[in-house]
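Dear colleague,

Thank you for sharing your sequence with our group. We've completed the structure prediction you requested, and as agreed, I am returning the results in plain text so they can be pasted directly into your records. Please verify that the sequence below matches your submission; if there's any discrepancy, let me know and we will rerun it promptly.
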Amino acid sequence: MAEIARRHRWAVELLAPKAGEAVLEIGCGHGIATGLVLAAGADVVAVDRSGKMVAACIKRNEGVGRLTAFESDFETLDLGTLDAAFAVNVDFPRHADRGWARKLGDVIKPGGRVVLVLEAPAIRTADRFAMAAAAALAGVGFRVDTELGQGMVAVRAERVP
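Please find the predicted structure tokens below.
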């Protein structure tokens, strides 16, 4: 099995998933971070726009825990209520806004959390991402902070009760 990148480890460490929690991963890719969250005992809903990536995520994590995976834009799914959500290297603010922050505001329960990690070797990229993502999440009822770490930036948010 391939080595787990720092960005995946850091995102899951900041998320701190707990057994029995319902966690959404946006842009699951090959399912590397998904596996870390499943190993912590959380149930994962993994979403990616690529069917190839969804298949890879399912294959990688077969038999590890409770995983539901969708090929879709997460903004269009009926997700119910979740304890937490995270994304690694999904630069939401860089693309046309499809309502990602509003959707997270709708599905994350009060007291729930969101972690967005972006590997950003240029400080301008990190700053742009952190400021835009933090503002979007704060605008839909999250308490937000940001953190820089070794070529990466994290936006952490908690849904205000």
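Summary note from our side: The mean pLDDT is 93.

Kind regards,
the structure core
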